[in-house]
Amino acid sequence: MIAQLCGQILSKNPPEVVVEVAGIGYAILCPMSTFYQLGSTDTQVLLYTHLSVKEDSHTLFGFISKDEKSLFRELIRVNGVGPKVALAILSHLTVGSLVECIGNEDADLLAKTPGIGKKTALKLIVELKDRLDKVEFSNAVFSASYIQGNNNPNAKKALEALQSLGFKNKEANKMISAIEDQTLSTEELIRQALKNK
Fold this sequence. Notes:
The chain has helices at 32-37, 66-77, 83-92, 95-103, 107-111, 118-134, 140-143, 155-164, 169-177, 186-196; strands spanning 4-13, 16-21, 24-29, 44-53, 58-63. It is an alpha+beta fold. It folds into three domains: 4-63, CATH 2.40.50.140; 66-143, 5' to 3' exonuclease, C-terminal subdomain (DNA polymerase, domain 1, Orthogonal Bundle), CATH 1.10.150; 155-196, Orthogonal Bundle (Helicase, Ruva Protein, domain 3). Strands 1-2-3-5-4 form a five-stranded mixed barrel. Strand 4 (44-53) and strand 5 (58-63) form a beta hairpin. Helix 8 (155-164) crosses helix 9 (169-177). Mean pLDDT is 84; it is low at 140-146.
């Protein structure tokens, strides 16, 4: 498995980038979010890669961050979502906005991705909601992006507790986001959220 490549960009032709590593040119498909962050040709680049092996092809997919690669791998685990569709999703939404979109169950925003219908968007949300909680993103912003407008470090634990009580993610998020006091403990947050319901 090729986990990452560090080399010089030989050519860029969306969505493909050719990177030379030790005299070998690797053709790598990238989401547009990564593509825009790459420098011009002849610049050094580090890409985190995923190798997709099929009967008739070996395809390398490259990402500017480990978070993008992790999310790509979660997307392609969903039945009916192949690497090309996952690439389209990551080209349409940033990692943070995709995590937030799934956390808030926003199927309409996800369905705006070319090639994704409402049915597929709902399927993605259902399958990825629980899985994304277990993915450790290197940037803390993503793991806390479910709780909008609340900087309390206990908010994530309170959100999880409300979900285990049977509240939908969107509803629990709204209940916690409404609390203005950022100093409350997890227990106080839960109590306050239940009063606000």
